[in-house]
Fold each of these.
Amino acid sequence: MNREQISRIAHTDHPIKSPLNDASVHRLLEHGLSRGDERVLDLGCGSGEWLLRALATRPHLHAEGVDISAAAMAQARQAARERGVEDRLVLHHQEAEGFVSVQPFNLVISVGATHAFGGLLPTLAAAREHLAPGGRVLIGEGFWDRTPSQEAIDMLGDLTDLATTVDRVVADGWTPIHGHISTRHELDDYEWACWGSLATWALDHPADPDSSQALTAASTHRTEWLRFYRDTWGFVSLVLGRTPDRP
Ligand SMILES: C[S@@+](CC[C@H](N)C(=O)[O-])C[C@H]1O[C@@H](n2cnc3c(N)ncnc32)[C@H](O)[C@@H]1O
């Protein structure tokens, strides 16, 4: 069982692969998509859940998603067919960094995928390249809510605190027009959904050759979360516009 198979099972009950509930996702999309006929790009779209939700509720929207996971792309394609939005969704199976488009986008999304570009600011720089005038960026990134342990840094990267994270975004020329800080409930719900789904699958498939690996992975991830980062890791989602240049 590879990482992609583990991830697919782990996200069975939480198709948004970030610690946000359905109402938060809905609100963030509302703030990024005020017209309903926008062109939307998701860099690191996973199984495309952000785009699928945006498309399902806005019949004049067009969307493109980029991800390196073949399994996630296949899942997105199938879900688009099931939800009847496949004619307005284009999926690119490739590195997000190398993605180019002749037409710009009104909203560029990148949630939980800044590692694809090597961090927050390089992700914003890439988003800027794809943005139409007056466009918005919806970015989701981790931050340290308290001083992290070395294990947490090794696991989740060298993040900053919330205020510093937002300061860095603002200093980079962006103005936050909406934001959401994942609640304790959203953070916990996401982890329980992931490692609970994986454990459930393992218990329900005792004869499957992957059952014992899945159970071990669920147990390891759950322990790492509880012991190493539950008390220190937070997640913020921001809807951003470009700050006007002043002479
Ligand atoms: C935590 S998931 C987030 C998925 C989605 N944004 C969401 O919130 O549901 C991170 C995604 O980034 C993708 N990814 C990682 N590195 C990438 C890269 N270099 N180029 C494109 N996608 C990448 C992974 O395959 C994965 O689907």
Amino acid sequence: MSDGFVARSLEETSFWSRIMKEHSLFLGLGFRAEDTVLIKEANHFYRIFEDIERRVHSFSLDVDPVTIQQFNQEVHTAVCHIWAFKRKVLGLILSCKLPGQTNFPLLVDHVSREANYFRNRLEELNQGKLEPLYDAIIDENVFFLRIMADHAKFIGHLLDPSERKLVEQAREFSQDFDQLLFQARDIESMRPQSQTGPILNQFLDQNRVSVKSLRDFKKTARDLIDQCRIKSIIHPLLADHVFREAERFLEIIDMFENSLTGKGNNSMIHH
Ligand SMILES: [Fe+2]
Ligand SMILES: [Fe+2]
């Protein structure tokens, strides 16, 4: 097993298990009062990921890697189950079986994509699979830019329509990130020829500027919601949740930037 396997595993699981726990809460809140079975299922996943989170924090870094490999496998199974639950809910919503529930279909799809991402991450960690740096840079950015574009759309639609200025700002972020996503997909389709140091460097720089400004917007929104200064139907925890995901994307961009400038062409990393 590679160096840093334990630290990397615990770090990923610590971040994403909290995210999965909160998704369960958001899904649960969006169901109708009569959807008791779905609410129970959501609560069940909440407890599962709450427990995983607690266990992650109980491990120390000198734990036997085999223990963590087994733990990753167990978390992987839980993530597969919550992914299936999210896709089932999406199916129910899109076939109009839950009229009046309040989670947007795109949000349900979005949280299932995040579960899928976490699941892949756990597989890569356990298999010790290393993705070449230049591929990782493109794949991670394509994934996260879409996540950011979705967040801007959710915020825009969950703010009260009377918050005209903020709704407009959210719409601008949505367009900015849609455009960045298209650019990222262009670079993706031009690979491997697009995978030069200067092009990827510029790609990261450009994305970083927009992610920082969206991160700041989310932080402001979160604080305004906490202080009850704006009108919206955004759960305070959702505001913090999307802020943390932007922070994570920024950390990943910085990590890539360091690998690009530090290690050169052939570096392979666990991202
Ligand atoms: Fe999320
Ligand atoms: Fe998200």
Amino acid sequence: MHSKYNPILLTGGRGLFGKAFLKKNKKIKKKIFAPPSSKLDITKKEETIKYLKKITPKLIIHAAALVGIQNCEKNKLLCKKVNIQGTSNIAEYVKKNNVRLIYISTDYVFDGKKGNYSEIDSPNPQSVYGKSKLSAENIVKKLNNHLIIRTSFFSKKKWKYKEAFIDQYTSRIEVDKLISKINKIIFTEFEGLIHIAGKKQSLFNIAKKIDKKTKPISLIHYKNLKIPKDISLNTSKWNKFLK
Ligand SMILES: NC(=O)c1ccc[n+]([C@@H]2O[C@H](COP(=O)([O-])OP(=O)(O)OC[C@H]3O[C@@H](n4cnc5c(N)ncnc54)[C@H](OP(=O)(O)O)[C@@H]3O)[C@@H](O)[C@H]2O)c1
């Protein structure tokens, strides 16, 4: 890690991404603040700014969000509050201070009509969740030293559902593998937007490897859920970065 990025604030440290990040970065644990939402609620602007002023992070990894398509459709206001207002509150501090902001975004900013989306493809989110993440990206984009990472990931330990779509394609990556990749870029000075993901496959293909009992289902029967068909990400830019 570059010594200039000390200390680090990780939002969403108790989530799937956050836990994997902390585990993989045990060696620099003392340099990372990872407060739970009960200690740092990013929707509360004054409290957030006060907390940031106290710890003066040099690098913020912003992974806190309300996640899940259905969860956000059901809780529209909370989704906007956490994902957009929360990001805006952090951005306000970042703007006034010399801080690098890493924003963890999603493949759900795309409509899923074509797949293999690159960084220059136009986003067209269909869900409340996707729209909120794109709005947050647009806030982050205006900041001097920012990196937006679009990705999608899963835990090899558990598939949360009894079923999985045979006809929804993503390039989800196992979360520990994602963190190994992310570690190669966040502590550099690379700025802008980058896709980091795994190979394209159906959700069912991923799920059945985690839990053999997973049942196959089709999007045809779930049209009202606004689930995009193919949101796989093109990672050519990432491959170039590695060279
Ligand atoms: N899961 C995926 O496949 C996926 C794909 C693409 C992008 N992403 C993005 O990756 C990031 C992490 O996702 P995840 O799957 O790890 O999420 P997760 O497991 O649901 O965890 C969400 C985290 O957000 C925190 N949070 C929620 N509301 C908050 C608030 N008001 N103030 C502060 N923290 C709050 C939670 O904190 P507490 O637990 O302390 O309440 C929790 O640690 C998110 O930005 C998500 O949009 C996820």
Amino acid sequence: MQMMSSERPACGWLHKLLVLLVKLHFAFAEPLQPLNGTGCTAKGPASYILVFTGHWSPQAFPKQYPLFRPPAQWSKLIAASHNRHFRLWEEGSSASPGVQSFAEVGVTVELMKAAKEARKKRTVGVMYRTAGIPNGIGHSSTEMLMVPRNPLLSLMVKMIPSPDWFVGVNSLNLCDGNRWKQEVTVDLQPYDAGTDSGFTFSSPNFPTSPPENITKITSQMPNHPANSFYYPRLKELPPIASIKITRQRRTPDRQTSISNHILPNSINPQRFSATPLDCEVSLWSSWGLCLGPCSRGGVRHRTRYILLRPANAGSPCPELEEQDECVPHNCIKKRQ
Ligand SMILES: *[C@@H]1O[C@H](CO)[C@@H](O)[C@H](O)[C@H]1NC(C)=O
Ligand SMILES: *[C@@H]1O[C@H](CO)[C@@H](O)[C@H](O)[C@H]1NC(C)=O
Ligand SMILES: [Ca+2]
């Protein structure tokens, strides 16, 4: 009787049902839309473990290796699963404000804000992060759940200390047609965000104005002896870091996307590569006073000093002092 007599509750009930139906429509319509671009036709999601390894050792990178305040270390790792309409960062393109603040000072607020916006547009799936590593050598890891509509992975880790240098990958596709890849290993090289002009790890803040685009740092570029990665004898830099992404059987608990577990079986044996570092010396000083008796002629000296000590069997330092015959100043006067 109650249902018959009160029209209003019935009306509200109908309204609720309609809202529910509309919600259901949107919830189920999305996965049924054709996948665009990335062409991942895998049936379901895939669970992965991502291990980041730092290989930034003083043996491999002896030049200006940061030992104190702060010593060499890695920031937290920021990763995003996404489709091809999103870019976290890209070589040859300008750094977004988020990439700039992460690469310069390791702050992730702007990056996360941009990723949230991209999530609303459904170009980003999930953001992951790992803890930082307080050394140049070490590991951090996270579990990831990849879905077919967001099969690309991009990530960044800042090098600390550095002006605006980071390592990362851009749009690594973990899907291969209708299958998820089992294991992917990538060696990482340093990149310059193009927003700070410092040349060395511990250069003071020096904004690049106007900003430049993101470039890869190599043993030859920037082509300047002051640069911390300038090793003219090397054809290419040894990998300063690497990532290993391994597919797992079990489905991860989505709540534990922030984790820092280390999987002993997924850690590469440490690669020993000692980079020879040649001695670098300053320019010669100007010649000193010509000293000596007028009868035998005089001698003058000039000096230079060591800018960079050689390491790992790099070429030794040349002579630091040179002498030259000359006519003492007072002798010229006497002869005249
Ligand atoms: C799908 O991809 C094509 C290029 O392959 C592009 O032109 C089109 O705009 C994309 N559509 C959507 C809805 O993203
Ligand atoms: C720098 O990147 C922007 C896009 O981010 C691009 O339009 C521009 O052409 C790039 N400049 C150079 C010199 O590559
Ligand atoms: Ca720079």
